């Protein structure tokens, strides 16, 4: 019983920490003067689940797409409007090579080093922001997750009391740093916080807003729908300067 009480206390403290460290409600950024629809986008994290959906759907929309990937061999896509740039997001020189000339950057960064402290998400995002500011690229759409900032606890009890404290504490703690890097930048930014990700088909009937999620049961959304929503944010000013929840 004592072990259970200690564990529950740890889970609660972690949730409070994720709430305090993640981005909380902010005043939305004023919409910039219209520059016309974005045509050129850089996708970071294109070999991941959401990133592959972003790449496919961006090409479907007729966008000119660049992707920054460590291993181009993991991409099985060839398209006349696709440029593949070999590089690591943790290498600023590689990021700086990819950013110039883009209208927007879309980040779906992720990794599987769950059981050790890392700064991959925050340091990679810091390089993206630095390169964007250096080259005058304004729009940044960044995927994080429900369970951070003012969405803490909204992944449901299974995540709040098991998945986050047991499997993903280091991963989510770095996500809080990632969100702060984005929010502290001069970019026109949108943080997208999806629920639990699935490999379902794109349906389009997803819900989005500031109070998405549930404190009791897990909410989910397909990676295809997440990609669809993120691409919409490239030109949509509704959520500029805010972290928006997303679920199916």
Descriptive report:
There is one protein chain. The strands form two sheets. This protein has an eight-stranded mixed sheet, sandwiched between helices. The chain is globular and about 60 Å long. The mean pLDDT is 93. It contains seven helices and ten strands. The protein has a single domain, classed as NAD(P)-binding Rossmann-like Domain (Rossmann fold), CATH 3.40.50. The chain has helices spanning 2-21, 49-60, 92-98, 120-135, 157-167, 169-183, 223-232; strands at 40-44, 64-69, 82-86, 104-107, 139-143, 188-194, 196-198, 207-209, 220-222, 242-247. By secondary structure, it is of the alpha/beta class.
Keyphrases for this structure?
37% helix; 8-stranded mixed sheet; alpha/beta; globular; 7 helices; Rossmann fold
Helix content: 25-40%
Under the CATH scheme, which architecture would be assigned? Answer: 3-Layer(aba) Sandwich
**SSE succession:** HEHEEHEHEHHEEEEHE
Instruction: Quote the average pLDDT.
Output: 93
* CATH class group: Alpha Beta
Structural shape = globular
Tell me the Rg in angstroms. 18 Å
Physical arrangement of strands within the biggest beta sheet? 3-2-1-4-5-6-10-8
Low-confidence stretches: none
Q: Give the amount of beta strand, in percent.
A: 15-25%
- Our count of domains comes out at 1
Could you tell me the CATH topology label: Rossmann fold
Please describe the biggest sheet, giving its number of strands, its sense, and whether it closes into a barrel. Answer: 8 strands, mixed
Number of strands: 10
Structural class: alpha/beta
Distance between the termini: 37 Å
Q: Compute the number of helices.
A: 7
């Amino acid at each position: 019983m004592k072990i259970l009480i200690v564990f529950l206390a740890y889970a609660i403290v972690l949730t409070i920490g994720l709430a305090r460290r993640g981005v909380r409600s902010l005043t939305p950024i004023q919409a910039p003067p219209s520059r016309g629809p974005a045509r050129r986008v850089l996708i970071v994290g294109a070999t991941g689940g959401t990133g592959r959906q972003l790449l496919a759907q961006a090409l479907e929309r007729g966008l000119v797409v660049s992707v920054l990937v460590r291993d181009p061999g993991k991409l099985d896509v060839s398209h006349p409007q696709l440029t593949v740039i070999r590089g690591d997001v943790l290498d600023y020189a590689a990021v700086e090579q990819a950013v110039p000339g883009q209208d927007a950057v879309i980040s779906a960064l992720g990794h599987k080093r769950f059981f050790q402290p890392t700064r991959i998400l925050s340091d990679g995002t810091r390089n993206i922001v630095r390169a964007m500011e250096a080259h005058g690229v304004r729009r940044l759409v960044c995927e994080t997750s429900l369970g951070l900032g003012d969405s803490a606890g909204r992944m449901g009890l299974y995540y709040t009391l098991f998945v986050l404290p047991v499997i993903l504490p280091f991963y989510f703690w770095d996500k809080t740093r990632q969100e702060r890097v984005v929010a502290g930048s001069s970019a026109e930014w949108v943080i997208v916080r999806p629920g639990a990700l699935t490999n379902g088909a794109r349906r389009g009937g997803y819900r989005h807003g500031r109070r998405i999620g549930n404190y009791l049961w897990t909410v989910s959304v397909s990676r295809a729908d997440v990609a669809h929503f993120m691409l919409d944010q490239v030109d949509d000013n509704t959520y500029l300067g805010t972290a928006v929840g997303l679920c199916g």
